[in-house]
Amino acid sequence: MRSCGEATGSSRQPSFACAAVGLALTGLVVAGCGSGTQRAGERNGGRAGADGGWTVLRDGASSITIGHPRAWSVQTFGRYCRRIGPGLLVSNVREHTFRNVEIPYGCTNEWDLGGLGDDYVVVDVSVFSSPPFFRPDQEAELPLELDRFARPAGPSFAYAQIAHGGRRYSVRVWSGANASQEDQRALVRVIRSIDLAPED
User: Fold this and answer.
1) Angstrom distance (rounded) from CA 180 to CA 55
2) Of 83, 85, 56, 88, nearest to 69 (Cα)?
3) Distance between CA atoms of 152 and 13, rounded to whole angstroms?
4) Helix, strand, coil shares, percent, the chain, to 5
5) What kind and span of H or E run contains 123?
6) If we measure between CA atoms, which residue out of 42, 3, 1, 22 comes closest to residue 134?
7) DSSP summary character for residue 134
8) What is the C-alpha separation between 28 and 40, in angstroms, rounded?
9) Hey, which of 80, 99, 147, 192 would disulfide with 36, CB 3.0 to 4.6 Å?
10) What distance lies between CA 80 and its chain's CA centroid?
């Protein structure tokens, strides 16, 4: 598989939404805020297969635990855009640092997916300080199931806005049209592995 270089384009995707009311937004925009600190995880070049064993990551900042293929990359981020984060990205894309789409006079939770080709798999799990009209009515049941996520833009994007343990979370998933069956199966397992610790 080829290595993924620096992102050069922008792929528009729905951002945060409330599954309880079936509302999808084209992007969350907040004026007058900066982006959070990002730290890239392992980045080794090329596409990472899902057959090299699994590992489990506990992110202390967000209290999110997630399992993933050992060869996949992890990128964590802090709070940004006032309502978003902390959280993490898990992906089969390596040698790449994901960045938010830049907009004038504000910030957005949209990730720039330009330049990734068509075989990527990306999972974003983050704390989300949602306004009252976005809040789900019930606590989420774990494990999460990808086939129950909303898909407002077709098979390439899925999301769930959930509440668990006193916090609210956004889980978003992107997959390229030519993502391998192996990576698609791994994606289902990644989503099922997500554990969300109660707020202290």
Assistant:
1) 20
2) 56
3) 10
4) 10, 35, 55
5) strand 121-128
6) 22
7) G
8) 23
9) 80
10) 14
pLDDT for the residue numbered 191: 98
Residue 199 is predicted with a pLDDT of 53
The residues that bridge with 21 in the sheet, in sequence order, are: none
CA distances from 67 to 7, 49, 90, 140, 198 (A): 26, 15, 9, 18, 18
Consecutive 10-residue averages of pLDDT for the chain (200 residues): 34 36 33 36 42 87 94 89 83 92 85 92 88 65 94 90 86 95 97 82
Tokens of 23: 């509302």
Q: Is the pTM of this model over 0.85?
A: no
Phi, psi at 77, each rounded to 5°: -145, 150
Burial grade of 34 (CB within 10 A; 0-12, 13-18, 19 or more): exposed
What CA–CA distance (Å, rounded) separates 178 from 191?
A: 20
Query: 47 forms bridges with which residues in the sheet?
Result: 93
Rounded CA separation 76/59 (Å): 8
Instruction: Report residue 132 as tokens.
Output: 């009252």
CA 35/CA 38 separation, integer angstroms: 9
